[in-house]
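Let's practice the habit of predicting before peeking. Look at the sequence and jot down your guess about where helices and strands might fall. Then scroll down.
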Amino acid sequence: MDFGCCRPAGDLLKEYELSWTSQSKGSNESMPCGGGDIGMNVWVEQGELLVYFSRSGSFDENSCFLKSGRIRLSFPDEPLDTVDFVQCLKLSQGLVNIKAGSKSNKVDIDVWADVFKPVVHLDIRSSSPRKVIISYENWRYRDRLLRKNESQSNSYKWAPPAGLKTSADKIDVQENRIVFYHQNSSSGTMFDVVVQQQGMEAVKEQMNDPLSDLCFGGELSAKNFVFKDTLTGVYADTDFKAWRLESMKASKNQEIQLVLHSTQEPDSWNSGIDSIKSLIKPCKDKQLTEAWWEEFWDRSFIRINPGRQDAESWKVGRNYQLFRYMLACNLRGEAPTKFNGGLFTFDPRHVREDRPFTPDFRNWGGGTFTAQNQRLVYFGMLKNGDFDLMIPQFEFYRKSLKNAELRSRHYWGHAGACYTEQMEHFGLPNPSEYGWKRPESYDPGMEYNAWLEYQWDTVLEFCLMILESHRYAGTDIIPYMEFIESSLTFFDEHYRYLARQRGSKELNADGQLILYPTSACETYKMTYNSTTYIAGLKVVLESLLETDKLSSEQRQRWEKMLKTIPPLSFREIEGKKVIAPALHWERINNTEAPQLYPVFPWRIYNAASEDKEVAINTYWQDPDVRKFYSHVGWKQYNIFAACLGLREEARKLTLMKFEDSEHRFPCFWGPGFDWTPDHNWGGSGMIGLQEMLLQTEGERILLFPAWPADWDVHFKLHAPGQTTIEAELKDGKLLRLEVSPKERLADVENWLEVQ
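Done guessing? Here is the structure:
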């Protein structure tokens, strides 16, 4: 066995760098591209290059996540050749390259986003001088009344007020540049609507309002270009207006820059753009961006049956890497990566024919974040070592902490942050899920919603992510300790509060919290002692107590709370002990399997657990678990199977998860239960694949706990204790293993040998 280093990660990506040799028929046949906090859909259609571009955090007054526009690059004398044509996603460099034509008429274009500045570059090289026209296309050149069902893309969802519109952008031409931006009003935004609807005007001045006066957009420019004209047109159901720049003379080398900017101080808009432009150094910026991508790919990878594109499992490794690239494009976003398309949605007609709306559309809202869905986007980043990519999600909770705490204090008079399941990016419930038609006597702090009532516990998964990032990499979690402690405080305070409303005792006869009413996901409703609540509170408290970040007083407080958490509930099915979703419940509303959440995300049971048979029984015997069985979208049966060491089941479900999508780009999965691209689909697939390869139990590192011996693999993943494991398996034999730090090698157990 060779314990030396394997080949650099960059070499491993070459066979995954997707190439197309024909042009596309529409935006649904685009490639993702991006970096920093910018995402683009890039495609060539009828000889022209088109690019949709989005920047994280671009929310309008209605809390719709707006694209910033579309670019069209054309060559007026000779369109891009459709015969000699290659479009390639170069993962190692983080760019899309287009080559068209041959010999004397060849054109070579790089499309890339600066990882460190909000700037998009189009670098054009041609073998002979060419003139270029670059267009900025915008469908918000006028106010747009929202049609029936179109508000599913904003926070009104199915209940918009009459006459709701998306307001027009401001667009101006100044010599060789086109300036465009969307400016929210100073009042009447979704923040104002939600505060009024939910009766929180008394504390409004104390709250964080990220929408009022928000101004976002950018500037498209190019040296030696001049303004040509404006045009109108229709693309994929949507009318638009185009502002066009043309190169003053034919040239072999031309550079086009798109600078993006956002601020809540509109008067500083121009100075902000100028400040970014003053920092641009194209050659150096490209080198730094490519260096970042090189470091990113060296952090981790999974390569299955390398060089065997005919193998059924080869695509699993390729699509895993392609999806990880999509996630990496929101490194430092103002908002987390959205589960329902991220930065890469395209014209909605290609997803559902009954959604002939603008490119801004996506189902389940733009500024609404559903916690059960967001968690699957982010948990896989731990084993990938992508701790920096997790920061936007952590910041989402930290920035909304004050608003969530004000909910508890205002409605119930106690401490702690109350985070609901479908939540606006400013920390309050989505208004339509909260309910527009509510009984007057109904608790104003509650969502009047059969699916979401009492579902507060998903926040605990993000508390765990933060604690795990510290356990894995030693990341600084001090900025998030207040969030974690406030979230725990809510459960302790609120369930004591509810108990006092019913009787004279806060705790039951065993000194435990009376967790009623609770919810086990959206599925088991009005539960007593929900399994997801109990598992989450227990694991987060234990994880918090394992850190060295607590004072003696804090430690005593959380140790005391831990003693009040009741045990999990079990039942018997066909003579076998299984985990129950709760001690009691009143009805079933959805199709999740919360009785298996002690397997994932809470990892109370794993492949090495002595009592894992209880969880395995639950997987196979519980009639609801079997009834809800699927691989689609956010379904996480592949994760459950992998965590429990069910090799053949994990293999089958992983192959299904990572099948190519129905669109040209293989990772544009969906819509599933949400939208396309479905980031839940990719995230759950990513987590399950990692668990097949690597699990930990205390200090133990379990290698290949659910891996099929006939799948060759070369991988590098992360484990707790600032540990990385790189291994190569071929023909069922471990050929190479490198563990850092080296002393952790003694903790590694090869489960292909011990099973």
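How did you do? The chain has two domains: 19-321, 386-520+522-591+593-627.
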